Amino acid sequence: MKSSRADLFPFILIVVLTLIAFAIFWSVMDMVLVGASIAVVLLPLHHRILKYTRPRVSAVIVTLAVFISLALTVLTTFFILSSNPDILRNLFASIGVWLNNPATNPLDFGIPISKATLSAMLAEGTALFVDYQKTLISNLYLILFKVLVLFVSIFSLLRWGEELKKKLTRHVPDILTGYIRRLSEATVDTLYVIYIVQIAIAVLTFFISIPVFYLLGYGNIIFYSFFAAFCELIPVLGSSVAFILIGTYALAQGDTRGVFILFFLGYLIVSCVPEIYVRPVLVGRRVKIHPLIMFIGIISGILTMGLAGFVLGPVIIVLIITSYRMYVQDRKERGKPLTSSES
Q1: Over pLDDT 90: what percentage of the chain?
Q2: pTM for this one?
C-alpha cells in the first residue's frame, strides 16, 4: 500500500502544479490549450517528417506550416474586408441610426433585448468588423503575446511532448497505464475530428449561404457568404452572428421579406442545422457518443470557457464517458456484477 502511494505521489504533484499554473496563467491559457490541441492533431505529420530529419527541425517545419496557414487566412480576411469597406460600414451605420431613433422599440419586433444592450453589442461588432484596424493596434501587444504563446506551445509539444509523456507515465502505477493509453487515444480522436469538422462546416457554410444571399437580393453575394463562413470558422462567433447582424439590418430597412429569408433560411438552416445536428453527429460518430451529449459539451464549453472551451468541452465529455465505459468493461471482465447505481 505504501509503495503504491509513493508511486502515485509524483503524478499527483504534477497534476496539482498543473492546475495551479492554469489558475495563474488563465489569461493566456486558452492559447496554450489551443496550441497543444493543434500539436496533438499534427503529430502524425511530425512523425512522417521525422523519417527524413531531426525532431527539432521537424517541429520547426510543422510549426512554420501552421504559421503560414494562419497568416494566409488572416491576410485573405483583411484583403476581403479592406476591398469591401463600405458594405459592413453601411450595415452597422444603418442599424445604429435605427437604434438611435426614439421611436424604435426592439420589443415591438419580438426582440427580448433592451435597446441599450443592442447598442453595446453593435459597438462591439463595429470594433471587431469595421474598426478592426484600430482594435488590432490598441490590443497589439496582447495579441502578439498570445500569438507567441500559441506557436511556442505548438513547437514545444511537438518537440518535447512525447518525451514528457514518457517521463510522466514512468511514475504512473501499472494499473493506471492502460486507462491513460485509452484516454489518450480518445482525446486524439476527439481533437482531430473537432478541427476537421470545424473547417468542413465553415466551407459548407460558404457554399450553402450563396443561394440565401442570392434570394435576399442585396448584392455582394460572395462577400456576405464569405463573411458568414469566416464567422463560422471562429468558434466563439459562429455563422449565426452574420445572419443575425444582416437580419437586423433588413429589419432596420423595413424589409420584412429579407428578415424572413435570413431567419428561416439563413439562421435556422445554414447556421443552426450544422451546429445542432451536423457537428455533434460527425464528432459523436468518431468517438461513439450520442450527438445530443456532444452538442451539450460543445456549447457548454464555448459558453463557459470561450475559445479554450471549444476544445475542452467536447474533450471533457469524451473523457468522462470513456472513463465510465472502461470502468464498466473492467468490472465485467473481472466478473463483478454492477450495482443498480452503476448500471
Answers
A1: 22
A2: 0.81
